[in-house]
Amino acid sequence: MSLARIQFLGAAKTVTGSQTLLEFREKKYLIDCGMYQGPKRIRELNWAPMKYASEIEAVFLTHAHVDHSGLLPKLVREGFRGPIYCSTATKDLCEIMLLDSAHLQEEDARYANETKHSKHRPAHPLYTVDDAEQALSLFHPLPMDQWIDISEGLSLQLLRAGHILGSSFVQIRLEKEDRSKLLTFSGDLGNPRQNVIKGPVSLLETDELVLESTYGDRMQSRTDPGGVLAKCINEIHKSGGVLVIPAFAVGRTQEILFLIRQLEDQGKIPEVPTYLDSPMASKATKVYLNHKEELNFYMNGDSKIESPLCSHRFESTESSDDSMLLCMRDGPMIVVSAAGMLTGGRVLHHLKVRLPHPENIVLFVGYQAEETKGRLLEKGFPKIRIHHKEVEVNAKIVTMDELSAHADTEDLVQWVKNIEKKPKRIFLNHGEEPAANALKYRLKHELGIEAHVVEPNESFEI
Ligand SMILES: [Zn+2]
Q1: Which among 352, 381, 399 is the end of a domain?
Q2: pLDDT tens sequence across 200-222
Q3: Is 177 left (phi over 0), alpha (psi -120 to 50) or beta?
Q4: pLDDT at 143 over 80
Q5: Domain total for the chain?
Q6: 430 Cα–ligand 1 center, Å
């Protein structure tokens, strides 16, 4: 007789839409409730009705990224009323991200209705700001590193995952009669090379492990990321150009700001005006600075100049008018803006203006998915389309992967190796198929642990 059952409702053989169902003592729980992102055929999965929405007792959230949290407002819209357990920092970041996501959904629907662009008349948003606010009212932050009783026979512990601020492993202890099991859900696993936040902790024990596999088949470069960045900044300082850095608002932006400041303080670059043109990233940076316990550096005070998350000549632009003015300003200067994969946002305006000129540099610091404009630029396309206009690419395109927030194949294997009492079985999710398969092979041959690459909707007795 099995004790419980888990089912992979999302992030199976793909890297977005994280959602796992746990059934125990006739109650249902969700671990993460993420949105699908990327090409249209993947995003369309977001429109399917949520499974068991009104039957779910509680959600356990690993971290704030939208591919793990972004369907919570939809779950609420479809009847969920239980608590959403997560770390305090995750709750603070979700307040920014879920409201922003809801605004985007409403804007998309409005745009589709104005342009009659949708097959649905009228087009409805996936969810609204009201839904997001209702979801936020259900958040229940928990302290880290403490076992908390959630319901009969089920207790929960959050441990630092070192991926973004607040990210945690969710450990669940199930007890029924004389049997017990310990399950661990990794969410996204970080790596120990991040500057801004502390790295992932090692696990003492787990019986079963659900492990992400985004970089299951890849090693990230171990060179000093400051070297590439310093070279770019010194180049635009000389040429009077603009360095545009597209960056995810939560995580990568803070790493970049920290590095720029560090290079200035070490005298490796001149003090060049730096603009953060992403209201969401500015808000997220404030949340980072409010959670000093998770930061990897010591802060002397709260004043702007003492924060290592801004350079000496730093400004953040709030209004879209200020953002447009920035597009007209002469270099040398650095512009950090979202979206990280050029899927939308203010960074597109900057690229439209800066890409045609050879003195400018575009620096990619995060993963560029297939079929995104970011991937086209990385591949060296001479022209790309932005806002229905063809734009010539004469600026220099530079890519670095040293700043990834994910564990790579080496980190993943090492992290499992460090678990004192190793899991009997590992379920691999959150990875494209080749990455998950490569990791499965390594876990079997190097550590002797059976791993299973999960299929969409596949379920397991545990
Ligand atoms: Zn993540």
Answers
A1: 399
A2: 999 999 999 999 999 999 998 89
A3: left
A4: yes
A5: 2
A6: 10
Q: Smallest Cα–Cα separation from 253: which of 286, 298, 227?
A: 286
- Residues with a beta carbon under 5 angstroms from ion ligand 1: 65, 188
Q: Which two tokens stand for residue 267?
A: 């005298």
pTM, to two decimals:
0.91
In this prediction, residue 117 has a pLDDT band, given cuts at 50, 70 and 90, of low
Dist. CA 187 → ligand 1 center (Å):
7
CA of 166 from ligand 1 middle (Å) equals 11
> How many alpha carbons lie under 13 Å from residue 364 in its C-beta half-sphere?
22
Average pLDDT, the chain: 93
Peptide bond into 332 cis (omega under 30): yes
| Owning domain of residue 372 | 225-399
123 and 16 share one domain:
yes
Question: What is the Å distance from ligand 1's center to 163 Cα?
Answer: 7
Regarding whether 355 and 258 lie in a shared domain, the answer is yes
| CATH assignment at residue 41 | 3.60.15.10
Tokens in use for 60?
A: 């356990």
Confidence of residue 437 (pLDDT cuts 50, 70, 90): very high
User: Which tokens in the block code for residue 170?
Assistant: 């969710």
**CA angle (103 as vertex; 101, 104 as ends), nearest 5:** 65
Residue 121 alpha carbon to ligand 1 centre in Å: 34
Percent of the chain with pLDDT over 90: 79
* Ligand 1 centre distance from Cα of residue 65 (Å): 5
Question: Are the C-beta atoms of 161 and 62 separated by less than 8 Å?
Answer: yes
